[in-house]
Design brief:
The complex is a heterodimer of chains A (about 110) and B (about 110).
Chain A: E1 4-7, E2 10-14, E3 19-25, E4 32-38, E5 45-51, E6 56-59, E7 62-67, E8 72-77, E9 86-93, E10 100-102, E11 106-111
Parallel strand pairs in A: 2-11
Antiparallel strand pairs in A: 1-3, 3-8, 4-5, 4-9, 6-7, 7-8, 9-10, 9-11
Chain B: E1 5-7, E2 10-13, E3 19-24, E4 31-37, E5 43-50, E6 65-69, E7 75-79, E8 88-95, E9 104-105, E10 109-113
Parallel strand pairs in B: 2-10
Antiparallel strand pairs in B: 1-3, 3-7, 4-5, 4-8, 6-7, 8-9, 8-10
The chains are: A mainly beta (about 110), B mainly beta (about 110).
Chain lengths: ~110, ~110
C-alpha cells in the first residue's frame, strides 16, 4: 500500500524566514497531494493541494512543488509569521481509492 | 453553515468499557471518513462511507471497532471492550462530492482509556 514519509518532524524558524517541508510517497498511481495545517485543539484544515499533472502551485505565501519522477513533493512557506506555527501534514491519494494516506506531521514553530 | 461537529470532545473511559463517538457532517456532504490520530503520529485511516455504497472498512484495526452512517448523515464510531492502546484523537472528515477531494475535518474526540 501507499507509504508517505515526511520530514523534518520539527522545524523552528525566525519570523520572516522561509520554511520547507518535504514528503515522499511510494505509490506511482497517486495523483492528488494535499497539505493540511492543524492548530492546537482543532482538526486539520486544507491549505493547498496539487494534482499529478501540475509541477507547482502557489497561493500567496504558500507554494507546493511536485516531482513525479522522484515521487516527492514539498511545501514552501515564505515570509513566515507567528500564526503559521502549527503542525503540517502532507498526504497522498491511494491509487484507485478514495483514501488519503498522511505523513506523520511537521511541527513548525515561528519565533517572533 | 456549521462545520463538521463531533461529540463528545473528550471521553475518559475504563479499560473494557464500550464507547460511542458521534460525527455530524456538513449538510449535503456525501462522503464521510473516520481517522485516528495517536500522539506524535499521522492520521490513520479507519473507515470511509460514500453515499449508499458499502463502506470501506479496510482501516479498522480490529473487530472491536465498527461504524455506521444512518440515512447518509450522522455517523457513529463504536469501540467495544476498549484497550489502553485505543487512546487517541478520533477525527471525522467529510467531502462535498465524490469528485471534490477536499476534506473538512471536525475537531475530534480525545479518547482516554484508563
Amino acid at each position: 500500500g501507499e507509504n508517505v514519509e515526511q520530514h523534518p518532524s520539527t522545524l523552528s524558524v525566525q519570523e520572516g524566514d522561509s520554511a520547507v517541508i518535504k514528503c515522499t510517497y511510494s505509490d506511482s498511481a497517486s495523483n492528488y497531494f494535499p497539505w493540511y495545517k492543524q492548530e492546537l485543539g482543532k482538526g486539520p484544515q486544507l491549505i493547498i493541494d496539487i494534482r499529478s499533472n501540475v509541477g507547482e502551485k502557489k497561493d500567496q505565501r504558500i507554494a507546493v512543488t511536485l516531482n513525479k519522477t522522484a515521487k516527492h513533493f514539498s511545501l514552501h512557506i515564505t515570509e513566515t509569521q507567528p500564526e503559521d506555527s502549527a503542525v503540517y501534514f502532507c498526504a497522498a491519494s491511494m491509487g484507485g481509492s478514495e483514501k488519503l494516506v498522511f505523513g506523520k506531521g511537521t511541527k513548525l514553530t515561528v519565533n517572533p | 453553515g456549521a462545520g463538521v461537529s463531533q461529540s463528545p470532545s473528550n471521553k475518559v473511559t475504563e479499560k473494557g468499557k464500550d464507547v460511542e463517538l458521534r460525527c455530524d457532517p456538513i449538510s449535503g456532504h456525501t462522503a464521510l471518513y473516520w481517522y485516528r490520530q495517536s500522539l506524535g503520529q499521522g492520521l490513520e485511516f479507519l473507515i470511509y462511507f460514500q453515499g449508499n455504497s458499502a463502506p470501506d472498512k479496510s482501516g479498522l484495526p480490529s473487530d472491536r471497532f465498527s461504524a455506521e452512517r444512518t440515512g447518509g448523515s450522522v455517523s457513529t464510531l463504536t469501540i467495544q471492550r476498549t484497550q489502553q492502546e485505543d487512546s487517541a484523537v478520533y477525527l471525522c472528515a467529510t467531502r462535498p462530492t465524490a469528485t471534490n477531494e477536499k476534506l473538512f475535518f471536525g475537531s475530534g474526540t480525545q479518547l482516554s482509556v484508563l
